[in-house]
């Protein structure tokens, strides 16, 4: 598992490098400007939705598809094709609803910045929501590849999408400004579909099957994952209360930590769930527990190493790579001063998926979703109280720390409970 994980991790490291490159280009072109503040506010919800889709559809669909593939392999592709079409249609309707609600969403999150800011944010948000159907299709196709043990194809497709995104930003920003970022965001996801769509799917006749088992598994995951990913909303809604440019600084530092820690452990995350599903279906519980323990230990060690490296060389890297054009040395110093604040959240960004996946493999999505909703409520309450007492910056750090660590600690407690049940079942047999 871990040998293959190294290959997958290497591909995601390359993808992360391209994301870093895009951040450098964006920062240098637009600086800590009002224009970039608007885009970061507009892309917050769409990017969370896309991230939630990537993080939940696979977790909900892969166990069901894997089970179908094992029990009835001849009809597995037809089962998949039916679900793919259903998901595409539903997600298109959801995207239209989100586009219609873009203005009230903008007012709810950024009302403190005034009407001009809200109008600009809601206008851009409408176009960014177009990525939702593309993300659903790409993720479900990725699940198909993972179920057939093609662990590399989807990561490569994401790498190609990132290449296109950087290319669009680099070549079009001077002509169409901030809209190059919007086009790049949507095109990145659409492009992935063409590289992972199995041509054999066209051979299947369309016979719609019952998608309720999937929706039952997905709903708590969607709610829980959206709650978990709401750290971005806490950062940007309270960041909007800070002076102009602080959304840019917060985005830069949080992205450096979350992307760096997340991508280094992505290989473990990608490889862990399919193997856990397989071991549990075969009732190989001792091997299941062994893999979970190894994954958590390695994930934590890797995250600590990455965080230490960022804390040590982060200010130098920001000064060397990001300063230039519209982004000044003073901007770099303000951003670098936030690095120590994000150390604790970074630990959670690197390991939370690893802690969640054993529960997903056991089909405990409802418990995990409930846990993450509780974590969100605690995070929002903490941020609100802290904002009143100490201001928006303290609210951001305290809110996301409580949100993230409540999820991790709670999921570990749930895993220990279910692990005892697995162990006792092995003993009794």
Summarize the structure in words.
The protein has helices at 2-30, 34-71, 76-100, 102-110, 115-128, 131-147, 153-176, 179-196, 212-229, 231-239, 246-264, 266-281, 285-321, 329-336, 343-361, 365-390, 392-428. The chain is mainly alpha-helical. Helix 4 packs across helix 5. The chain starts with a helix and ends with a helix.
Helix content: over 70%
Strand content: under 5%
Termini, distance in Å? 27 Å
Mind summarizing the main beta sheet?
none
Overall structural class, as computed from helix and strand content, comes to mainly alpha
Q: What integer value in Å does the Rg equal?
A: 21 Å
What is the 3D shape? globular
Oligomer: single chain
Mean pLDDT: 86
**Number of DSSP helical runs:** 17
Low-confidence stretches: none
Helix and strand pattern: HHHHHHHHHHHHHHHHH
What is the total tally of β strands? 0
Give the helix/strand layout.
Blueprint: H1 2-30, H2 34-71, H3 76-100, H4 102-110, H5 115-128, H6 131-147, H7 153-176, H8 179-196, H9 212-229, H10 231-239, H11 246-264, H12 266-281, H13 285-321, H14 329-336, H15 343-361, H16 365-390, H17 392-428
Helix pairs in contact: 1-7, 1-11, 1-12, 2-5, 2-6, 2-9, 2-10, 2-11, 2-12, 3-6, 4-5, 6-8, 7-8, 9-16, 10-17, 11-13, 11-14, 11-15, 12-13, 12-15, 13-14, 13-15, 15-17, 16-17
Q: Could you write a compact summary of the structure shown?
A:
The protein has 429 residues and is an all-alpha fold. It has 17 helices and no strands. Helix 10 (231-239) runs antiparallel to helix 17.
């Amino acid at each position: 598992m871990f040998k293959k994980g190294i290959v997958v991790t290497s591909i995601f490291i390359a993808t992360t490098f391209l994301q870093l490159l895009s951040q450098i280009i964006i920062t240098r072109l637009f600086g800590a400007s009002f224009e970039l503040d608007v885009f970061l506010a507009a892309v917050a919800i769409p990017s969370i939705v896309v991230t939630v889709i990537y993080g939940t559809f696979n977790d909900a669909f892969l166990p069901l598809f894997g089970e179908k593939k094992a029990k009835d392999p001849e009809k597995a592709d037809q089962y998949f094709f039916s679900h793919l079409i259903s998901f595409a249609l539903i997600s298109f309707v959801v995207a239209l609803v989100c586009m219609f609600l873009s203005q009230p969403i903008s007012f709810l999150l950024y009302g403190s910045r005034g009407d001009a800011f809200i109008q600009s944010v809601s206008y851009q948000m409408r176009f960014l929501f177009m990525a939702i159907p593309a993300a659903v299709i790409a993720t479900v196709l990725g699940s198909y590849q993972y179920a057939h043990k093609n662990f590399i194809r989807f990561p490569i497709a994401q790498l190609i999408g990132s290449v296109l995104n950087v290319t669009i930003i680099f070549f079009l920003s001077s002509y169409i400004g901030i809209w190059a970022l919007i086009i790049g965001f949507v095109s990145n996801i659409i492009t992935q579909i063409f590289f992972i769509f199995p041509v054999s799917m066209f051979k299947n006749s369309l016979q719609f099957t019952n998608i309720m088992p999937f929706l039952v598994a997905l709903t708590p995951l969607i709610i829980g994952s959206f709650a978990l990913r709401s750290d971005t909303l806490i950062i940007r809604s309270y960041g909007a209360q800070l002076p102009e440019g602080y959304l840019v600084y917060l985005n830069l530092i949080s992205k450096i930590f979350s992307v760096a820690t997340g991508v280094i452990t992505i290989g473990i995350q990608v490889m862990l769930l399919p193997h856990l599903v397989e071991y549990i279906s075969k009732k190989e519980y001792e091997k299941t527990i062994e893999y979970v323990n190894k994954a958590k230990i390695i994930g934590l060690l890797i995250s600590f190493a990455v965080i230490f490296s960022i804390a040590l060389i982060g200010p130098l890297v920001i000064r060397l790579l990001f300063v230039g054009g519209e982004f000044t040395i003073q901007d770099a110093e303000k951003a670098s001063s936030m690095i120590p604040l994000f150390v604790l959240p970074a630990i959670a960004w690197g390991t939370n998926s690893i802690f969640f996946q054993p529960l997903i493999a056991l089909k405990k999505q409802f418990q995990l979703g409930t846990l993450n909703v509780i974590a969100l409520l605690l995070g929002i309450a903490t941020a609100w109280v802290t904002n009143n007492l100490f201001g928006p910056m303290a609210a951001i750090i305290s809110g996301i720390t409580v949100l993230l660590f409540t999820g991790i600690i709670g999921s570990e407690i749930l895993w220990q409970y279910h692990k005892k049940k697995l162990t006792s079942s092995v003993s009794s047999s």
